[in-house]
Design brief:
With 248 residues, the protein is an alpha/beta fold. It has one domain: TIM Barrel, CATH 3.20.20. Helices cover 32% and strands 19% of the residues. It is built from ten helices and nine strands. An eight-stranded parallel β-barrel has the order 1-2-4-5-6-7-8-9, surrounded by five helices.
Length: 248
């Protein structure tokens, strides 16, 4: 068997879980993504003030908790008590901020493939990469696929790739100049912004035998167009069966 075949991606990856129909980065969003056919879920991971790996997108708590504070100013003992569901809809009141290990255990037990986007803070880039790698080495199931991504090179330098674990560089904008300057050819997986990508860029990377993933695509017709261009996967706020239903 070709070793590359051991790592497979679905075309549809649920962005922050099923974030169109549930509060992002919560167990509710993961469960709904799974229930609507998603086999891949993307989540954000960052440090709490006491260096716990938590599943949370923003550096500030305000948008999803109503508390105007930096995440780094709070220990996980404080963070675990905050409600991150009611801002989305009252039916999700009581949703809490998960830890990475809690999510890993859930994914292991429910056959969910996971994309972890590492969010960084200045001075903590290498340490969060090391902590993610340590956690994965101890806990991730070898049965599932795992993609580790970041806009920052530093944490990714700490991630060890295996047959089932790969890493991806995320780019806000692609240029050939940047590709050469930062030796991006060392990466096999590229995550590109849908608003700033075109067929020419995708073709350029595909010709180099790279895998191209595009964020965030919620229009089924746009998803279909990107697939015709050879895009490997898209990140969508809708779980797989819902975006396919919209296309039907």
């Amino acid at each position: 068997m070709n070793k590359d075949n051991l790592f497979t991606l679905d075309y549809f990856i649920s962005h922050r879980g099923a974030s169109a129909i549930a509060p992002e980065n919560t167990f509710a969003a993961i469960r709904l993504a799974k229930s609507y056919g998603s086999t891949w879920v993307e989540l954000d991971v960052r440090f709490s003030g006491d260096k716990e790996l938590i599943v949370f997108h923003d550096s500030n708590l305000f948008r999803t908790t109503g508390i105007n504070s930096s995440v780094l100013n709070k220990s996980y003992k404080d963070l675990k008590n905050y409600d991150v569901g009611e801002w989305f809809h009252k039916s999700f009141k009581g949703e809490k901020i998960p830890t990475l290990i809690e999510v890993i255990n859930y994914c292991n037990n429910n056959s969910i493939n996971l994309n972890i986007e590492i969010k960084t803070e200045k001075g903590l880039e290498f340490s969060i990469g090391s902590k993610v790698q340590e956690t994965l080495s101890k806990s991730w199931s070898s049965k599932n696929n795992l993609l580790i991504s970041s806009f920052d090179f530093k944490p990714l330098s700490k991630i060890v790739e295996t047959q089932k674990v790969k890493k991806m560089i995320l780019l806000e904008e692609f240029s050939k100049k940047k590709f050469v300057k930062y030796n991006l050819n060392s990466f096999y997986y590229f995550g590109l912004d849908f608003k700033k990508v075109d067929k020419k860029v995708i073709t350029y990377l595909l010709d180099l035998r790279k895998k191209v993933l595009v964020y965030t695509v919620n229009d089924p017709l746009e998803a279909k167009l990107l697939k015709s261009w050879g895009v490997t996967s898209i990140f969508t706020d809708f779980p797989k069966n819902l975006i396919l239903l919209d296309d039907g």
